[in-house]
Specification:
Layout lengths: L8 E3 L1 H13 L6 E8 L5 E8 L7 E5 L2 E5 L4 H4 L2 E7 L4 E6 L3 E4 L6 E3 L1
Parallel strand pairs: 1-6, 2-5
Antiparallel strand pairs: 2-3, 4-5, 6-7, 8-9
Length: 115
């Protein structure tokens, strides 16, 4: 939990199911997924999702629907109150984020900005 409020990030059922699948397919040392942000894209920031093999110093750990999401400390202020989902269609599958902190998003949906 982040401070006295709710979790930094919540997961939809689809996201939790996909995280479980990825953990089952991953190395036996996988504890969950790590979510962060990087500077890239036309709007400035992009979400990063990767396997988490350990908890890093100052990381927030969100346990939701039976899976663990490790939040990079540099990303916490950008992710507070966000919901992570997993969408799949005929052409692609990906994690998506509904983030109340976003003030703009690029046309292709690959990057975002906050004020």
């Amino acid at each position: 939990m982040f401070g006295s409020g709710g979790p930094v990030l919540t997961l939809t059922d689809n996201a939790a199911k996909r995280v479980r699948q990825l953990m089952d397919q991953g190395d036996k040392d996988v504890l969950g997924l790590r979510v962060g942000v990087s500077s890239k894209g036309c709007s400035g920031l992009s979400y990063v999702v990767e396997y988490a093999m350990e908890q890093k110093k100052f990381e927030e750990v969100v346990e939701d629907k039976g899976v663990k999401i490790f939040i990079d400390p540099a990303a916490i202020m950008f992710l507070i109150g966000s919901e992570m989902d997993f969408v799949e269609d005929k052409l692609e599958s990906r994690f998506t984020f509904s983030n109340p902190n976003e003030t703009a998003r690029c046309g292709c949906g690959e990057s975002f900005s906050v004020q």
